[in-house]
Amino acid sequence: MRRRESSSPRNKTISSRHENESISTSRNNKNIAWMRSMEKNWLDHLKKLNLNIQNERSQSFPFLATPTTVVHLIFKICRCTNQSPDVRYLAVEIFDRFSYYHFKSLIKNVWVNNEYEECTKKWKHVMSRVKSQFLLRLLSCIQISAKFTNSQNQKLIQAMAVKKFLSKAGKVYSLRSILASEVRVLKTIDFKLHIPTISVFVDFLIEFIRCNLAEDVNQHILHETSVNLIDIVYLHHQEIYHKLHYISTGCWERAENDRYRFLPIECNRIFLACAVIRASINVVLPDQEDIGSDISVQLDQLTDVPAGDISALAAVIMEQIIIT
């Protein structure tokens, strides 16, 4: 009769360890698959939002009524009130679109007949009023942006604070007028805020490619660098996209039809986010062009934005840094 062999404690321990490792590996694989699925859903959602923004701006030129001086003022006020970068970016977008639609409405209402002298006189009066309300409208845009942009360290700008700010600037408005201005801005842009901001697109794409970043690329530094580059893009939007148009067409002069055809590129946030990341890599790792090229290819595969286009816009941004 054969003697039954009993399992040793050591064999049981090894077997149990292998089972635990197998279970752990299976769970990790499921978690990774789940995360990738979530990331893909987010990317698809951002692509839809990006397309909506492009469609909404298909008939309006970005930054047409928002020169560098206005962007700089918005940035300065946001920094003085301790707002996050998202607040200043959204505030610029809101003010830019409000100004366009506001002027469009005013033109439609003023130039209604052929009496040139009468219309001219009325237009001068309207423009004088618009000029006097400029700071109020700008602050309203910042207020709205602060309310609708999520940030842990963000501080809302109360109507009373706006009233005091305007008073120091020699502008006297009641709290009711300040609140009414917010409503006016929202109605003018049809309550479309174009959220999320460009920095969210950038952060998401950085997160998506984080596993493929070089070990010596600090993700926090990359994020901070990208914020600085977005600032430059917003401050010098016209110069950057004018140069990109030249690179694309070989022509410096831009007719109205040329600008309309270029709008899908100029309003493509995913394209801009990819270029900002590529330029940020160039800043963080200035002597490692291969890594930057690899990142462009990865972003191309992820977003369907051609790697060559990403590199071209990134190069324009880098040139603007040198000029600035």
From TrEMBL:
GO terms for cellular component: site of double-strand break. GO terms for biological process: reciprocal meiotic recombination. CDD domains: CYCLIN_CNTD1. InterPro entries: Cyclin-like_sf, Cyclin_N. Residues 69-193 form the Cyclin N-terminal domain. Residues 1-26 are annotated as: Disordered. Pfam families: Cyclin_N. SUPFAM superfamilies: Cyclin-like. It comes from the Eukaryota. Gene3D superfamilies: Cyclin-like. PANTHER family: CYCLIN N-TERMINAL DOMAIN-CONTAINING PROTEIN 1 (PTHR21615). This is Cyclin N-terminal domain-containing protein. It comes from Clastoptera arizonana. The lineage of its organism: Eukaryota, Metazoa, Ecdysozoa, Arthropoda, Hexapoda.
